[in-house]
Amino acid sequence: MIDGWKRTESFNCPKCKDREMIYNSELDAMVFCECRERKQYERILKNSGISEAFRKKSFRNYSDKGIDILKKAKKKAVNYIKKFDEIRNTEKNSIAFLGQVGAGKTHLSIAIANNLMSKNIGVLYMQYREDIVKIKQVANDEINYSNAINPYKNASVLLIDDLFKKATYKDRLGNEILNDADARVMFEIINYRYLKRAPIIVSSEYTVNKLLDLDEAIGSRIIQMCEDRTIEFVGEKLNHRLYKLVI
Ligand SMILES: [Zn+2]
């Protein structure tokens, strides 16, 4: 072998040579390649300047800090990946990481997303606090509203990071209430995906009970979609131990 003799072409997707279109002989037409959706979402990550940080989060560098519940959470996440093909079109095809800060909920969610993306499965990343604003801003304009919300409804998989972050206020009695505008947008997205059996990966500081409290229609659908893949981080113990370990 002579080095450099043959021009080697390396494509991210050998199937379409990164053109994102392939010829379908049955249809006698060019169609989108299976890599297209993933690449679209990768471009969105790149444009938001977070693709580097996103790609760095893997199962390997998730720290369980020797804590049982974190080990279990990681196991559930890895297991979700293994089972994904089998469950993706079923009613219970989703996963949620809920509760306390510091448990690495976002890390595990993104590790799952990276894993699915490596198999050409499109995972759209919804950074809740930022992305919901873009949808709410155009709520009074039908066409722009559809354009803004549709990607979150139609993505093969949707990762909702930090669901309901800054979406609540306190009423006069001190009860935490979900903003109407947030509730409306999220019900539309979640209900659509629930009916279509389209998977979601959710991270939120709210626990199951709190989600149901804030909005039963949204909360109950999320719980139904995730069921035994709902991982809750609660309790003083975890907090205490985490606190000690972080210091
Ligand atoms: Zn391709």
Q: Your description of this structure?
A:
This protein has 247 residues and is of the alpha/beta class. The protein has two domains: 9-47, no CATH class; 49-246, Rossmann fold, CATH 3.40.50. The chain is 48% helix and 15% strand. The chain has ten helices and nine strands. The protein has helices spanning 36-47, 51-56, 68-87, 105-117, 128-136, 142-154, 180-196, 208-214, 216-226, 236-246; strands at 21-24, 29-32, 95-99, 123-127, 157-161, 168-170, 176-178, 200-204, 230-233. The strands form three sheets. The protein has a five-stranded parallel beta sheet, with helices on both faces. Strand 6 (168-170) and strand 7 (176-178) form a beta hairpin. It is globular, with a radius of gyration of 20 Å. Mean pLDDT is 91; it is low at 240-247. Zinc ion (ZN) is lined by residues 13, 15-16, 20, 33, 35. Zinc ion binds at residues 13, 15-16, 20, 33, 35. One of its GO terms (molecular function) is ATP binding.
**Proportion of residues in extended strands:** 15-25%
CATH class of the largest domain: Alpha Beta
- Which small compounds were modeled alongside the protein? zinc ion
Quaternary structure classification: single chain
CATH-assigned homologous superfamily of the largest domain: P-loop containing nucleotide triphosphate hydrolases
Biggest sheet record: 5 strands, parallel
Euclidean distance between termini CA atoms: 55 Å
- What's the number of extended β-strand segments? 9
Any guess at the CATH architecture of the largest domain?
3-Layer(aba) Sandwich
The general outline is globular
> What is the succession of H and E elements?
EEHHHEHEHHEEEHEHHEH
Portion of residues in helices?
40-55%
Give, in spatial order, the strands making up the sheet with the most strands.
4-5-8-3-9
- Average pLDDT across residues? 91
Number of helices: 10
Q: Would you tell me which CATH topology of the largest domain applies?
A: Rossmann fold
GO molecular function: ATP binding
Protein name: DNA replication protein DnaC
Organism: Tepidibacter thalassicus DSM 15285
